[in-house]
Amino acid sequence: MSGSTQRVGRIKSLATHHRTLQHGMNAWPPFLFSGIRIQKMSSDFRHVRVRLRRLPTTTNYVGTLFGGSIFAMTDPFWMLMILRNLGPEYVVWDKAAEIEFVSPGRASVTATFDLTDEHLAELREAAAGGQKVLRWFETDVRTDDGTVVARVRKQIYVRRKRDA
Predict the structure, then answer these.
(1) Which domain holds residue 117?
(2) Which of 69, 81, 115, 155 has fewest C-beta within 10 Å?
(3) Angstrom distance (rounded) from CA 39 to CA 18
(4) How far is Cα 162 from Cα 148, in angstroms, rounded to an integer?
């Protein structure tokens, strides 16, 4: 299948192993300099846990976590996990995003992403005829005591690649 293609940067395409990708993303300047760290990435790219540390450099004027950093810690993961699991015969993109700030980020926070067999089966079935699929995925950003600081929604675009 050629048709439409989805390009991945040359350096990023080398990160086919989960640990290589995890370490590479942790060294990526937008994460490295924002206090964002991937704590765990499963070998099948179906589970990711990300942490944003509360430091003097990650807080805003009123001493809570920067909202942009909270969003940044969640940004790439649904698209990346779905892309890695559906494989090269699919086009996968971020389409839209929403964030709701629920409570002030006065402590370090964690976001967990779990991509299930049901998610993947639903996407494959919906895209089987070549039509585009738009699906929302949700993630809560929480402190260690379970307090929800933010709710993030990402809309993912999925479509089977077209034949030439």
Answers:
(1) 10-160
(2) 155
(3) 12
(4) 41
